[in-house]
Write a structure and sequence with these properties.
heterodimer, A: 14 strands, globular
Chain lengths: 344, 331
């Protein structure tokens, strides 16, 4: 049965859009302009026409800078936000239009890990309470002993001593808390984990511990990850495929090895060149002009044009479509399409 | 003579039940125009070092002993009057978060002119002209207009560049930058770092760069101090330390980076956590996490000493060096 499904991606995101209204009430939409009162609505275009697949068993990393919409994508897929338009399919069926009750059976297959382990664990619940709650919720038939056994097993697997279960989150360090947050996601035996910057709040030596744990869980449980991060060295290590997001649009999707050895989109190239290297004495980073525009007044054409050294009239007026490249990557750039990048 | 000379600096915090030692007898020098990196994880004491240099440690913290000689003058014993003259003028500090460093109710111009007038006999117009020149140096477009804007009207990267411009306003000899780009995106970080490097080199300004990012230290600094639990555990030329770290903690820190392992393979992690300051283990503070620890390490604190090119605080460093050489010969 499962073999038949191997070909279809686990998650299909089609034309996903999300806008957040800036003006909350009717009064706020009123603007005084040129001597008269008009109504206008402003919205943050957080995610614009994003199409992505997550295949079974892979770790798809979504990278980009702050404000590029990567966390919004994660929250949309997890069902924490409702898309403005577009569709999300999970295991062949559409999930973005489900009611809370209809979504319920899927919740134990899809789990999420958040960035800040200080905020994602309830400070008034002991670790045992925090870990037992999801097990009991999703397995009402479990006896108390079975619940306890499950929690102990998961705590062992993430390297947190089960005898600590009586303690409260504030008694743990950041790295341990993030392990506990991962344990909580694993207690219900999910198949798909959405991790939103799970290690960026942690120190370097602790980051390695948590990344190792997530890699182990991937191997031993056959997990599929949607991994949101801004840290490219983590992507290179953890991801099997990468999607680069800029201002809510996908610039480039490629296998990790392809993306790092042969980045094509000018933004991907700039991003890779900006990572501080250990051994290289001389940074030769590509300096981007300007700053990231706000996603309120979106430029008409390519979202990256205002900072791109290769932008021309076409980029100004027409938004580039993602086009398949010979090496299998997907790139949305007129300059790449027209072969203007590497000339001269 | 070096520009800055720190000797046996010890900072303590008097808590309700006990007194914790946040900095434990650290000593280092910064030569004129030299760029020094201070690396470590949270709780290592790197930010406290930066604050202590500016005499910004406030109660319940205090400098217990040691001296901070800036051009021969001891900052620790300095009067408030003299400190006010020095801060911003001879040495200035760049903080982590550009959102909170600038005063939100004053325009950029007011903040820059205020700084200049506090230290120099200038007319308002002259000060404004200097501010414009400094903003141009940090690549701010149309600086005349920016002077009349408020911080909230500018992006994070622009704010941090303005903070750098303010730090450079009075041509200081030393800049202390505490995680100056941690709150910023990578492409902006790369711009800011390049700018800081360029300005320090062209104006011969000394820089103390406090960061957790070894990549940044590697690209920005000439010498590096590695800190752990309030002590300097390794010091030397940055290239030496990155390419051939001697202390097991430094080795662990560098090996734990994802770049150091083949993609998809298990990262070489350091077990355990940095001890909290209230609960530092006896002996070498790193010994519970160290795979080479011996009984000596568990009882006696290693002094920092010169081994070849670098200074290391580790009892076992000679044994490790010898073993490393043997392995190299066998290989």
């Amino acid at each position: 049965m499962k073999d038949m499904n191997v070909r279809t991606p686990l998650v299909e995101i089609k034309g996903l859009e999300k806008q957040f209204d800036l003006d909350q009430g009717w009064l706020e939409t009123l603007k005084f302009r040129n001597g008269r009162i008009t109504r206008e609505k402003r919205a943050v275009h957080a995610v614009n026409n994003v199409t992505l697949d997550v295949n079974r068993g892979e770790a798809l990393c979504v990278v980009g800078e702050s404000g590029c919409g990567k966390s919004t994508v994660a929250r949309l897929v997890a069902g924490l936000l409702t898309p403005t338009s577009g569709e999300i399919h999970y295991d062949g069926s559409r999930i973005d239009d489900l009611s809370r009750a209809q979504m319920q059976p899927l919740r134990n297959r899809i789990q999420m890990i958040f960035q800040n382990p200080y905020a994602s664990l309830n400070p008034r619940m002991t670790i045992r309470q925090a870990l037992e709650e999801p097990v009991r919720h999703h397995n009402p038939s479990f006896s108390a002993a079975e619940v306890r056994e499950k929690v102990t097993e998961v705590m062992m697997s993430v390297g947190v001593d089960p005898t600590w279960a009586k303690r409260y989150p504030h008694e743990f360090s950041g790295g341990q808390r993030q392990r506990i947050a991962i344990a909580r996601a694993l207690t219900v035996d999910p198949e798909f984990i959405i991790a939103d910057e799970p290690i960026s709040a942690l120190d370097v030596s602790i980051q390695a511990q948590v990344l190792n744990l997530m890699l182990e869980a991937k191997e031993s449980r056959g997990l599929t990850y949607l991994f949101i991060t801004h840290d490219l060295s983590v992507v290179e290590h953890f991801g099997t495929r990468v999607a680069v997001l800029y201002l809510g649009s996908v610039c480039e999707v490629a296998d990790t090895a392809t993306l790092f050895s042969n980045p094509k989109h000018p933004y991907t190239r700039a991003l890779l060149s900006a990572v501080p290297q250990l051994k290289d004495d001389r940074p030769n980073h590509i300096r981007l002009k300007g700053e990231i525009p706000t996603p309120i007044n979106m430029p008409q054409g390519c979202p990256f044009q205002s900072r791109c050294a290769f932008a021309n009239n076409r980029c100004d007026s027409e938004k580039p479509k993602a086009i398949h490249q010979p090496d299998g990557s997907l790139v949305a750039c007129h300059a790449v399409e027209e072969n203007r990048l590497d000339e001269g | 003579m070096s520009l800055l000379s720190v000797r046996d600096l010890t900072v303590k915090f008097a808590m309700r039940d006990e007194t914790v030692t946040a900095l434990n007898g650290i000593s280092f020098d910064v030569a004129k125009g030299e760029r020094l990196g201070i690396v470590g994880e949270s709780g290592a004491g790197k930010s406290i070092t930066g604050f202590a240099l500016m005499k910004l440690i406030s109660r319940p913290g205090y400098v217990d002993r040691g001296e901070i000689l800036l051009d021969g003058e001891d900052v620790v014993k300095m009067s408030d009057q003299r400190l006010r003259e020095l801060r911003g003028d001879k040495m200035s500090m760049i903080f982590q978060d550009p959102m909170v460093t600038l005063n939100p109710v004053l325009t950029i111009g007011q903040q820059m002119v205020e700084t200049l007038l506090a230290h120099r006999k200038l007319s308002r117009e002259e000060a404004r002209q200097i501010a414009i020149v400094k903003l141009r140096e940090v690549y701010i477009n149309s600086p005349e207009e920016r002077l009349d804007q408020y911080p909230h009207e500018l992006s994070g990267g622009m704010r941090q560049r303005i903070i750098i411009a303010i730090a450079l306003l009075l041509d200081p000899e030393l800049i202390i930058a505490d995680e100056p780009t941690t709150a910023l995106d990578v492409t902006i970080q790369a711009d800011i770092m390049e700018l800081l490097l360029e300005l320090c080199q062209s104006n011969k300004v000394g820089l103390i760069l406090i960061t957790h990012d070894l990549g940044v230290v590697s690209q920005m600094t000439e010498r590096t101090l590695v800190m752990y639990a309030g002590r300097i555990i390794e010091a030397g030329r940055t290239r030496e330390i990155i390419n051939d770290p001697q202390h097991p903690y430094t080795q662990g820190l560098i090996n734990a980076l994802p770049q150091q392992t083949l993609p998809g393979h298990k990262l070489r992690q350091i077990p355990g956590n940095m001890p909290s300051l209230t609960n530092i283990p006896p002996g070498c503070p790193f010994n519970p996490r160290c795979e080479y620890a011996t009984d000596l390490c568990r009882t006696r604190i290693p002094e920092i000493a010169q081994y070849g090119e670098v200074q290391v605080a580790c009892h076992e460093v000679q044994r490790l060096q010898a073993e490393g050489e043997r392995q190299e010969q066998n290989a």
